[in-house]
UniProtKB/TrEMBL annotation:
GO terms for cellular component: cytoplasm; ribosome. S-adenosyl-L-methionine binds at T143, G164, D186, N229. Belongs to the methyltransferase superfamily. PrmA family. The keyword Ribosomal protein applies. Keywords: Cytoplasm, Methyltransferase, Ribonucleoprotein, Ribosomal protein, S-adenosyl-L-methionine, Transferase. Its EC number is 2.1.1.-. InterPro entries: Ribosomal_L11_MeTrfase_PrmA, Ribosomal_PrmA_MeTrfase, SAM-dependent_MTases_sf. It is found in: Cytoplasm. It comes from the Bacteria. This is Ribosomal protein L11 methyltransferase. Methylates ribosomal protein L11.
């Protein structure tokens, strides 16, 4: 079977979720998001259509819908649309070519589950992932920065909530860095199953709990770290719940924030008694490490441990 592959190449000024929604709006059943190594092009958003029923006017329709985004304040300059054909018999290798081991740091590497990888040093932690399962393989700037932020704070940390877990990669990382009590949440049933499957690929992670749940709704416990790699609009919804779920001296890591919305999130965190102690920027995205403002003011010396 032959499929039509439609790709939208997005500059760093545009969020891929907007393009994903645009694809769905014109009849796509789903999309895949693939990072590009070019600094000027952040992401490719691809969708596949049955060639036998492919609408020859789809590209024109897609371009029209993308152009309309400028009416809502989005900068669509530099967006490219490409079309190609893919033979289903080579589909598996078609998408695998985009994935390779990702070195998050000297101590951490994410490896696709079909790659035979030898660690560069004895202290290197390996996270094995099936990139085809769900969002979050270490290649996207938000996941990459979030993992670096986690590595910065994890020391004497015993418990963690992973909000919007996606592939489960952050929970797996936390376990490998010594966190004992980990609960992961995602609203999408597919993500929950993907996280569980990826957890099985990593020895020692079997008891990480994964729940199909909206943010932290219905959970009353407190943890040392709350991490959320989700879109800024969703982060805003659960900021009011952070205080009641975070232990004294705890950390909050927020990622998935486009640079233009960093101030918005910072201001809302300030309103609820939290302030950033470190902000990482990568390819148009912000990742914030936060603590309670009073803890920052009281603490003398290093605050990342």
């Amino acid at each position: 079977m032959i499929w039509k592959k439609v790709s939208v190449l997005i500059p760093s000024t545009l969020n891929e979720e907007i393009i994903s929604d645009t694809f769905i709006g014109i009849g796509a059943n789903g999309v895949e998001i693939v990072d590009d190594d070019n600094d000027e092009v952040k992401t490719k958003v691809n969708s596949y259509f049955d060639e036998d029923s492919y609408d020859s006017g789809l590209i024109e329709k897609l371009r029209s819908e993308i152009d309309k985004l400028s009416n809502f304040g989005f900068n669509v300059d530099g967006v490219e649309i490409k079309e190609s054909s893919v033979d289903e018999s080579s589909w598996e290798n078609e998408w695998k070519q985009y994935y390779h081991p990702v070195h998050i740091s000297h101590y951490l590497t994410v490896v696709p589950n079909w790659v035979d990888y030898t660690p560069d040093n004895k202290d290197e932690h390996i996270i094995v992932m099936d990139p085809g399962k769900s969002f979050g393989t270490g290649t996207h700037p938000t996941t990459f920065s979030c993992m670096q932020a986690l590595e910065m704070i994890l020391g004497n940390v015993n418990s963690l909530y992973d909000v919007g877990t996606g592939s489960g990669i952050l929970s797996i990382q936390a376990r490998q860095l010594g966190v004992k009590d980990i609960k992961a949440f995602d609203l999408a049933a597919e993500a929950v199953e993907a996280a569980k499957e990826n957890i099985k690929l990593n020895p020692g992670c079997e008891d990480i709990e994964v729940f199909e749940n909206s943010l932290l709704d219905g959970f009353d416990g407190k943890v040392d770290v709350i991490v959320a790699n989700i879109l800024a609009d969703v982060i805003q919804q659960f900021i009011p719940d952070i205080e009641s779920h975070l232990n004294s001296k705890g950390f909050v890591i927020l990622s998935g924030i486009i640079n233009e919305k960093e101030k918005l999130i910072t201001d809302q965190m300030n309103e609820h008694g939290f302030s950033p102690i470190e902000v990482l920027h990568l390819k148009g995205w912000s990742t914030m490490i936060c603590k309670r403002t009073k803890d920052i003011e009281e603490q003398d010396g290093a605050i990342l441990r």
